[in-house]
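User: Hi! I have a protein structure encoded as tokens and I'd like to know what sequence might fold into it. I'm fairly new to this, so please keep things simple.
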């Protein structure tokens, strides 16, 4: 039925798509000399050893200037305004309590947040292929291909993650398509190469059950043109797009990632640490370079220890699989005020944190339902 006569003789020789391998057999992809130790097994992706980042002399930091910073003092008026603003954002909280409670004590705390960012680049290789369209082939005959770490690429802006793929120069070769065995087409799985299928209306009986007239859908033939292949009996190979050949080459995959380490200085208060980790702070210190040195003598000892631990963790995690391009460490002051208040014969506490005066309150005395989450 409307079959292409030129294909009638070849359809019987085509294999079904489902019976063909999805990936080329390993023997098709010969080992390239410089990559024998890198491309192992069935095209397994292997991380490449990084180059050592350049060092720099350790600098003396004027920590005395940081001692001059003081936690911003929150006044009683500011403490009440912050609570009223918080209460107004909650549909189930009443503002009467916030306006009339008696603030008895404001305890100012000094917290610091340490953050380390490590921007790294890692490279892996993998065999891949694409349809060959008779374009020039950049194979080993054109010269030696470079080491993967010698391939020059444009690095994205520092601390912005990205992934890009590149074709390794001089690594290409042309092979017969492993999916269709170089035919460009494969036998249709819907009709098994016949081009027609049993009529769905009469099930091939040419007439519907208990009816004397012939089936109108198939005009009494019992067969319908295969909709999968439009009656051709075969379909264009999806792997080589009908080109019959594939261009195999080594693909370089470069990943730029930003690893993050954060720590908030220790405190014995009831304000959740996850809120303080997201709080807005005042920047006290910033150090950015290809590598940064641990802070060893900051006035808050736990910040110094966090710096040493964060740098050690990032170095250990990235040493065998990535190249560190840039590091940045910062210290921020996080204002935190503990507000003790009295209301209707009971005492309680709420917290004001961050430079934008966010509020965390426990057991607010004027709640009308339990549909709100305290944050």
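Assistant: Happy to help. Inverse folding works backwards from shape to sequence: for each of the 375 positions I chose a residue that suits the local structure. Here it is:
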């Amino acid at each position: 039925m409307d079959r292409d006569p030129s294909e009638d003789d070849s359809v019987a020789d085509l294999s079904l798509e489902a019976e063909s391998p999805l990936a080329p057999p390993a023997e098709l992809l010969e080992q390239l000399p410089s990559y024998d130790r890198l491309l192992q097994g069935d095209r397994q992706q292997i991380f490449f050893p990084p180059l050592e980042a350049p060092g720099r002399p350790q600098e003396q930091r004027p920590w005395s200037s940081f001692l001059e910073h003081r936690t911003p003092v929150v006044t009683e008026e500011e403490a009440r305004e912050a609570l009223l603003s918080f209460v107004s954002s909650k549909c189930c909280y009443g503002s009467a309590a916030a306006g009339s409670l008696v603030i008895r004590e404001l305890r100012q705390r000094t917290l610091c947040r340490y953050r380390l960012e490590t921007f790294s680049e890692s490279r892996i290789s993998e065999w891949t292929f694409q349809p060959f369209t008779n374009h020039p082939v950049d194979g080993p005959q054109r010269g030696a291909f470079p080491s993967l770490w010698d391939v020059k690429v444009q690095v994205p802006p520092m601390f912005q993650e990205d992934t890009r793929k590149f074709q390794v120069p001089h690594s290409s070769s042309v092979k017969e398509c492993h999916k269709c065995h170089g035919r460009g087409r494969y036998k249709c799985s819907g009709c098994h190469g016949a081009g027609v299928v049993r009529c769905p209306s009469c099930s091939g009986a040419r007439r519907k059950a208990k009816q004397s007239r012939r089936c109108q859908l198939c005009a009494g033939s019992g067969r319908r043109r295969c909709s999968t292949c439009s009656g051709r009996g075969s379909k264009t190979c999806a792997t080589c797009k009908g080109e019959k050949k594939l261009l195999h080459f080594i693909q370089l995959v470069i990943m730029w990632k930003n690893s993050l380490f954060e720590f908030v200085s220790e405190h014995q208060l009831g304000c959740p640490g996850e809120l303080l980790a997201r709080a807005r702070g005042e920047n006290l210190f910033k150090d950015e370079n290809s590598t940064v040195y641990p802070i060893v003598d900051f006035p808050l000892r736990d910040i110094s220890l966090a710096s040493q631990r964060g740098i050690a963790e990032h170095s250990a995690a990235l040493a065998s699989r990535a190249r560190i391009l840039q590091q940045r460490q910062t210290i921020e002051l996080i204002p935190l005020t503990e507000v003790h208040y009295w209301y209707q014969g009971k005492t309680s506490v709420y917290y004001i944190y961050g430079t934008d005066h966010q509020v965390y309150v426990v057991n607010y005395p004027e709640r009308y339902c339990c549909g709100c989450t305290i944050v």
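A useful reference point when you look it over: The mean pLDDT is 81. Feel free to ask if any position seems puzzling.
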